[in-house]
Amino acid sequence: MRRLDQRSVIFWQVENAVGAVALLVVAFTLSRLPFTTPQWDMWIRLLALAALLFALLDALVLIPQRYRYYRYALTADCIIVEQGRFWRRRQVYPLSRILYCEVRQGPILGLFNLFTVRAATIVESRSLGPLGRAEADRFELLIREYAE
């Protein structure tokens, strides 16, 4: 079983920070609207503070734990994904059941040169990653070769 790229922890933390900043902008905008009463203003600030505290907990505790307990393997006939510390889950996706494979890179992933691979079956689609370019290409190549 393999681990994700080490840069994935920093990616998740940056993604978390972007979400926290967006939340602060929305909270600030809502608190400045003319129809906002002082009671609503207090609730907006309280919810924004709670969300920021959760974002901090997520960045410092939960994200490193997610990285620590997330494993995957790509074999000649299946993809295996294991995750979780207390509630462990192992999912096995036979390559014969995979309909398509998609390699994605958004703007934040692009900063770290990371990619997400999405493999879909008839029932569900599963994202793996963030992965480095070589690993994402290896996934895509193996799935494509298996389909031929």
Q: How do the strands and helices of this protein lay out in sequence?
A:
Layout (H helix, E strand, L loop, with lengths): L6 H26 L5 H31 L1 E5 L3 E6 L5 E6 L5 E5 L2 H5 L2 E7 L4 E8 H15 L1
Antiparallel strand pairs: 1-2, 2-3, 4-5, 5-6
Helix pairs in contact: 1-2
**Quick one: overall form?**
elongated
* Radius of gyration computed on alpha carbons: 20 Å
Report the β-strand fraction as a percent range: 25-35%
Number of strands: 6
Structural class: alpha+beta
Mean pLDDT: 90
Helical content, roughly? 40-55%
Strand order of the main beta sheet, please? Answer: 1-2-3
Separation of termini? 26 Å
What can you tell me about this protein's structure?
Helices cover 52% and strands 25% of the residues. The chain is α+β, with helices and mostly antiparallel strands and 148 residues long. The chain is elongated, with a radius of gyration of 20 Å. The model has no long low-confidence stretch (mean pLDDT 90).
A few lines on this structure:
The chain has helices at 7-32, 38-68, 107-111, 133-147, and strands at 70-74, 78-83, 89-94, 100-104, 114-120, 125-132. It is of the alpha+beta class and 148 residues long. Strands 1-2-3 form a three-stranded antiparallel sheet. A three-stranded antiparallel sheet has the order 4-5-6.
Defining key terms:
elongated; 148 residues; alpha+beta; 3-stranded antiparallel β-sheet; 52% helix
